[in-house]
Amino acid sequence: MRFELTDDQRDFAASLDRLLAGADTAKVARAWADGEHAPGLKLWARLAEQGVPMLATEATPVEVCVAFEALGRFAVPGPWVESAAYLPVALGREVEGIATVAVAPHVPLALDADVADEVYVGSTLATAAGARYVSVDRTRRLFEVTGEGDPDRAAFDLAVLATSAQLLGLGERLLADSVTYVKQRKQFGRQIGSYQAIKHALADVRIALDFARPLVFAAALDQVSVSAAKVACSDAAYLASRTGLQVHGAIGYTAEFDLSIWVTKVRALVGAWGTPAWHRARLRQDLGIA
Amino acid sequence: MDLDLSESELAFQAEARAWLAANVPAEPLPSMDTAEGWALHQEWEAKLAEARWSVVSWPRAYHGREASLVEWVIFEEEYYRAGAPGRVSQNGIFLLAPIIFDHGTQEQRDRFLPTMATGERIWAQCWSEPEAGSDLASLTSTARRDDARGGWVLNGQKTWSSRATFAHWGFGLFRSDPSAERHRGLTYFLFPLDADGVTVRPIAQLDGEAGFAEVFFEDMFVPDSDVLGAPGDGWRVAMSTAGNERGLSLRSPGRFCAAADRLVELYGATRGELGGDDVVDAWIKAQAYRFYTWGTVTRLANGGDMGAAGSVNKVFWSELDIALHETALDLLGPEAELESRWLDGYTFALSGPIYAGTNEVQRNIVAERILGLPREVRG
After folding, report:
1. Eight-class DSSP state of B377
2. Which CATH class is domain B248-370?
3. How far apart are CA B372 and CA B69, in angstroms?
4. Residue in A1, A175, A211 closest to B5 by CB
5. With an 8 Å Cβ cutoff, are A4 and B1 in contact?
């Protein structure tokens, strides 16, 4: 019984954080949203050097979660869940380069099919890529794809877990940025972070994230369904985004202010890889009360 | 990173499970806040103690098993899974005992711990006063020095004292130095509730039972031997983290997981068309609480302390407890208002966000000590 990250896992998390903190990922995300992929592809290569794409086949789900929490914290764009979680398991091998996938009905469109070296449907190569759709998260460029392929349950579950960890990272970043802001912003002559209405709202975010995290790692250890982790992380990250937006006020509602990148990504990921309603239904089934 | 139990922990679990299966009363005991229920709960404590299950983490000399923190959590899980009675000795064994272990004299440990472990002497907490609730440090009950008799004379009033209606002894803070400011000048006292100068007046709770009481002190004499820690050091003694770790801050997940399992069963039995998502959400939160606790246990076993995370924990379990029981009542439909185990659990859960530090105070602690937000302006 030792329910905490090992020193190696902590070091890995710290090295990813260092790399990403120095990479101006908000700028990378904005460029990616505009279809300028060069900075994002450069970042992809650096993360690949750190071994992120091979974690699903060469490490444990715990390391996958560590990596995806970092990707979430820094809002890194690109089909990471597809290339580093779903496809390695579905194909039984590490993905070389960038790949993406549609897994109907939960993932009807393929993320970033225009930059991917390989595009799959289920676990079979797609026959064609079609129209692009615009997501609430402008960095998520989604494409219609055609092809015949069956979903892979184990691969899907790892993608759900990776998405949960990503949501956890997004939520942590939203909370951290909100705390920084409410300590700077003054109204009525005082820091707004000294008012109980603000403090209690942010305390509730802290509490929600603290109790979502153990479900992610317990799911990584196969001690609870990934659906429980997805529901809890979606709720916690969504609370972090709503509260974060509220305490920032109007500045947070602008596209120019970086908070919007995190807020919109949370909303997109809440519904990705199985909606909360679908995951709750799956848990009901597991519990024998469907 | 793992959640595996060792062989000896599994053996401990099996032993606890077997004993509980053979000994837990088939029918729930009457409420511990009635005279009849009180006696039966005390008998149950004696039975637990005889088999060394009443205070598993304590030293053997005081009826314990020197169980590890992991084993304590295992025992608690088994205890609630078996549907065993609520612990009438809870205030003593979880709140007071850790402080006696840390701050008491050897003589006090030998005098107080054995009868606490067997349930022969039940303890009540006496913290709040009519004008000192969340702002406990503003308390005004006094302790006046009596050198001639070698002790202190207590005066004042405590209230919302859980279990005080039937309990034998109480513990609480009194102002021993009227010239000192707030947190300073408080002393931690232990006192019999049937002594001269003490009057206990039961208070009916909203379910009609006398689960707590107010306690009046009129020139009650307490000898020096019943002062816990140094005079004037009472606040620090009362707030020491050891007192919280195994008490209400690290509240065992067993109770909530067992309730979540019963909720799933209830949903299956009622085949409700509504409420399925609420059932699932309550179940998810109970699991979250369980895994969170294993994380805390790992940290404590490594020598860390609970710190302000105890406040994160308290808000979560008290709201989870309400959510679990509200959902059950929703499933029961129009029959929810009728007496039942779920209804008892619900009325009990309603007190959770209030006692042991209101959830508003806990959220302030989370915001100030964990998030680092500025302290609010205080009067």
Report:
1. P
2. mainly alpha
3. 30
4. A1
5. yes
CA distances from B237 to A99, B81, B230 (A): 60, 34, 9
Peptide bond into A105 cis (omega under 30): yes
The domain covering B123-239 belongs, at the CATH homologous superfamily level, to Butyryl-CoA Dehydrogenase, subunit A, domain 2 (2.40.110.10)
- B288/A215 CB distance under 8 A: yes
pTM: 0.95
Q: Give the Cβ contact number of residue B40 at 10 Å.
A: 18
Q: Who's near B290: CB < 8 A, 6+ residues apart?
A: B253, B256, B257
Whether ipTM > 0.90 holds is yes
Residue A146: C-alpha distances to residues A121, A128, A133, B278 (Å): 7, 5, 15, 38
- The string of pLDDT tens digits covering residues A1-48 is 999 999 999 999 999 999 999 999 999 999 999 999 999 999 999 999
Question: Residues with Cβ < 8 Å from B251, sequence gap 6 or more?
Answer: B313, B314, B317
Comparing CA positions, the residue from B124, B106, B116 lying closest to residue B62 is B116
Q: Compute and round to an integer the Cα radius of gyration of chain A.
A: 19
Q: Name the token pair of B116.
A: 């606490």
Domain A153-286: CATH architecture, name and number where available: Up-down Bundle (1.20)
- The residues, any chain, with a CB within 8 Å of residue A52's CB and separated by 6 or more, are A16, A67, A71, A80, A84
Structure tokens at B76: 């608690």
Q: Which of A3, A213, A287 sits opposite B294 (nearest CB)?
A: A3
Name residues of chain B where pLDDT drops below 50. 242-243, 245-247
